[in-house]
Amino acid sequence: MKSGRTTLPAHVHTLIVGAGFGGIGLAATLLREDPTADLLVIERADDVGGTWRDNTYPGCACDVPTALYSYSFAPEPGWRYAYGKQDEIYGYLRRVADETGVTGRTVTGCELIEAQWDAGHRQWRVHTGRGTLTATVLVAATGALSAPKRPDVPGVESFAGTAFHSATWDHGYDLAGKRVAVIGTGASAIQFVPEIVDRVEHLTLFQRTASWVLPKHDRPISRFERALFRALPSSQKLVRGAVYAQKEGYVLGMAHQLWLLRLFQRRAEAYLRAQVPDDGLRAALTPTFTITCKRILLSNDWLRTLTRRDVTVVSSGLTAVTENGVIDDLGNEYPVDAIIFATGFTPTEPPVARHVRGADGRTLAEHWAGSPSAHLGTTVHGFPNLFLMYGPNTNLGHSSIVYMLESQAAYIADALRVMRAERAATAEVTDGAQRRYNEELDPQLARTVWNAGGCDSWYLDRSGRNSVMWPTFTWRFRRRTRRFDQENYRFTAAGEGRREAEDAGVGA
């Protein structure tokens, strides 16, 4: 990776917080349009890459094909596998950041402490771990999978062994010959458990809720295919288009015709029968909700791993930790040397929301009160000149989030163009526009499998609202974000915001 900036400017027009897929994609989009654009990216870690830099657990990989899980403007003909591995995707992001000039506009080791809207000067005052600066426009591109969720379990502080979250894997701890408890059976656990099971003495898996599992049709990409992609880039575009079309087909079942999901469920049931011959274990691993209500897990060795004699599946949550073990819901204790939490993240309560204060002085988290909402998942009333990447209701259950992020990047780029053309100092979505948008989404979501499929997933926030998922085809989101809908925004011209602030008694 090329070296980035080491110091902060006093002021920057566009400040992007986070250098993962969202931040890199937006910065690259803006720099393609104007290589001299006044923008800066700050990243709390020591390198770009986001979740693909941080998650280094054994077996870490993507469950969306690399043909689609990549930027359309930065095709990679050298992918080694149909589904990208962690190191491959991390390397790809670093290369894109270098080649598009984003690296040179990035300050690493620079954590956001607080951003406060200054109405008098119509700008954001931003405090970071490396100093203070102001910004005309602030973009939160910190992602939905940036804060590991570690349950608050009684007694965990007294545990004499080693405990860590899968997203902060302790590579210095040798698992060989150890008794290991894994808490959670989601997308991370299904990848690392088969990787570590041969090394440990015994693995105890705590499964609160079973998940539907299907085979992962991964394969190495041949030298011929890679050579073809390099020689004829349009061939890789065709593959990308085919994968996109296939993925969009899943929406028919997830959001429009739920009965179609029975076909997928029968396939998953057959796969479970083939992999798990024991009736009792198979019953424990059979979900009670409609397939895709929770994320489908893709694995060729997960179910088979759970049939091993040195693996115990506990159909329970973890209720307590002792000095030498873990306790299930029934009070049974299992002696272990290490605990690995595979308990996911906090997408409905993103940490960045606690650090951004809007026009009324409240944080975004206080404004949302546990139920995030936005206009087009990108702007929030009361927070002028703030844009979100991977904001509320932009997550997918069937396709690539990169497609959604590129859609948002195009929307934000057009917003900045409109602001320049209108000579606007600020742009803020109206309360009515944001409310109408979400009143449109909620009934659509109510009919989807994520709301009506009988599961309690991380898609639902603490109010019970689905504030995470996009309810229909991704091309519809792209159509909505193709242009900046300025009719839904209030603009202030240069000088207007200052006069209003002074009239209200706000210091300039």
UniProtKB/TrEMBL annotation:
Single GO MF descriptor: oxidoreductase activity
- Enumerate the Gene3D superfamilies for this protein: FAD/NAD(P)-binding domain
Instruction: Kindly give the InterPro entries that the UniProt entry links to this protein.
Output: FAD-bind_Monooxygenase_sf, FAD/NAD-bd_sf
- Per UniProt, the enzyme's principal EC class comes to oxidoreductase
Q: Name the EC number(s).
A: 1.14.13.-
Q: Where are the transmembrane segments?
A: 12-31
Sorted alphabetically, the keyword list is:
Membrane, Oxidoreductase, Transmembrane, Transmembrane helix
Record PANTHER family: FAD_NAD(P)-BINDING DOMAIN-CONTAINING PROTEIN-RELATED, L-ORNITHINE N(5)-MONOOXYGENASE-RELATED
Q: What is this protein called?
A: NAD(P)/FAD-dependent oxidoreductase
Q: Which organism is it from?
A: Rhodococcus parequi
